[in-house]
Specification:
The protein is of the alpha/beta class. The chain folds into three domains: 6-40; 75-276, Rossmann fold (3-Layer(aba) Sandwich); 280-449, Ribosomal Protein S5, domain 2 (2-Layer Sandwich), CATH 3.30.230.10. It is built from ten helices and 21 strands. The chain has a nine-stranded mixed sheet. It has a seven-stranded mixed sheet with strand order 15-16-14-13-17-20-21. Strand 11 (262-268) and strand 12 (271-274) form a beta hairpin. The radius of gyration is 26 Å and the shape is globular. Bound molecules: thymidine-5'-diphosphate and magnesium ion (MG). Residues 101-102, 125, 172 line the site of magnesium ion.
């Protein structure tokens, strides 16, 4: 028998080449190509144009039942999933090692098991004892979840095929599984793809909700299983900053619900606890607010979220000024600094600038521009922004402040948390009792900040 043809697959993006190369032409990473057997070269894998079954083509119109949902009862988790887990679907949960993925899914699974549904947790990373210990620590010693510590895909599928279909199946993690039909090490693109494919097929056929755990590399991509992202119905990221107890579950893809939805948790001694009112978490104490702190009225998904943005502008001691950003895009900071200097003569660019988003949150919205600019100007001028004041608005290169979406939701949340004043783009209307100050440009912002003491 002929040897199956070899190909070289990039371990970071999954691109395949007939020849080895030092650098992947598709994603640009170095030394990421490894040799793998070509699955397409396996006899019988080729599709031909004749001899297939005729499939029925259906109209888009018509009604299909909305998929039933499995609720974990952990509201933060259910909301991020788009209202609970969908039977027969596959979901990937990614995140850095040690962030709490196993903890979260064990808690969610136990909650479903407590409703009497069969559930299975397969760990390829930890032994039964370790998982049991964790369950004890989480106060789940009476959990009805069925455990297995296994990495062989064949054994897992044989076991699952012979048993009652679980309502929910957790596989921790997809990188540890290996299929004996593939000649590559566990964790490589072809192994991960093959294992995910088989498990997803099983889940779809039997109507189980499949939760896959995946690791994330240093640069924030799900290692290897980038390819898995396309195969699953939903991708959630579990993230948080080291040294902080807050954890954020974020939907980045969801075929059954909105993306950009977040769930906020706090890692405690006894596991992950839901945080129902996250705004309170990301705001420092009002009394102690110093210069350089501005509160941003943000939106995460459908949820308003107030966060404190802190800036420190200090004289540059030597050479090129330093820039350090935590929780915000550094290119965005560079832009806001340049605009402040060019359009409002703020004179900050030549200084060292540090910017931090409180509580370990990461902000991606352009609406944070105005709050960041407010924090920077406040630190530079040494003025304290009144503690009952929030900001939002996008800054354009011309220095004008532009309107952003969901102004009303932002303002309502601010009012709910006791804020009295908002610095906003022009032509924004808000709830009664909240004083709105339109800020048409960065020049107006600097002028306004000079009136603070
Ligand atoms: P884990 O769920 O193992 O993370 P992952 O599966 O993403 O690698 O969580 C590991 C961390 O969580 C560990 O460093 C300890 C901490 N932890 C708690 O603080 N409280 C707890 O109740 C548990 C179970 C873990
Ligand atoms: Mg784990």
């Amino acid at each position: 028998m002929a040897r199956p043809a070899l190909r070289y697959v990039c371990q970071s993006c999954g691109a395949a080449y007939p020849k080895w190369n030092g650098r992947c032409e598709s994603c640009g990473s170095w030394n990421s190509l490894t040799e793998e057997a070509d699955a397409a070269a396996i006899p019988g894998a080729k599709a031909s144009g004749r001899g297939g079954r005729v499939i029925a083509l259906e109209a888009v119109q018509g009604t299909s039942p909305t998929p039933p949902r499995l609720l974990t009862g952990i509201a933060e988790f259910d909301r991020v999933c788009g209202g609970g887990l969908v039977p027969g679907s596959a979901l990937l949960v990614g995140g850095d090692p040690g962030i709490g993925k196993s903890t979260l899914l064990l808690q969610a699974l136990s909650a479903i098991a407590a409703t009497g549904k069969p559930t299975v947790y397969i760990s390829g990373e930890e032994g039964i004892d370790q998982t049991r210990l964790r369950a004890n620590r989480l106060g789940l010693e009476d959990s009805q979840v069925k455990l297995a510590a296994e990495t062989s895909l064949r054994d897992i599928l044989t076991t699952l095929d012979g048993a009652n279909t679980p309502a929910v199946l957790v596989v921790d993690s997809i990188q540890t599984l290996w299929a004996d039909s593939i000649e590559a090490a566990p964790g490589t693109v072809s192994q991960v793809r093959a294992c995910a494919q088989e498990l997803i097929r099983y889940a779809k056929r039997r109507g189980a909700a499949l939760l896959l755990i995946g690791h994330v590399t240093k640069d924030g991509q799900i290692a290897g299983p980038r390819v898995v992202e396309h195969m699953v119905d939903a991708v959630l990221y579990f993230e948080g900053e080291r040294g902080h107890n807050f954890r954020i579950l974020r939907a980045v893809k969801n075929r059954f619900g909105p993306t950009d939805e977040i769930g906020v948790f706090e890692m405690r001694e006894t596991g992950l606890a839901e945080v129902a009112n996250p705004s309170a978490l990301f705001l420092g104490p009002k009394e102690a607010r110093a210069s350089g702190a501005a509160v941003f009225a943000g939106i995460e998904g459908t949820r308003p979220l107030l966060v404190e943005i802190q800036a420190l502008v200090a004289p540059a001691s030597y050479g090129a000024p330093r820039r350090a950003v935590v929780g915000w895009d550094s290119a965005r900071l560079a832009m806001v600094l340049a605009v402040l200097d060019a359009r409002a003569d703020a004179g900050i660019s030549a200084q060292d600038v540090y910017l931090n988003v409180a509580g370990g949150l990461r902000i991606g919205e352009p609406a944070a521009d105005l709050a960041a600019a407010g924090a920077l100007v406040s630190s530079h001028l040494g003025v304290v922004i009144p503690p009952d004041c929030v900001f939002f608005g996008e800054i354009s290169l011309s220095g004008t402040v532009r309107a952003v979406g969901q102004a009303e939701g932002r303002l309502k949340e601010a009012q709910k948390l006791g804020f009295k004043r908002a610095l906003v783009p022009p032509r924004v209307s808000g709830p009664k009792g909240l004083e709105l100050t339109p800020v048409p440009s960065v020049g107006a912002l600097v002028a306004l900040m000079q009136t603070f003491h």
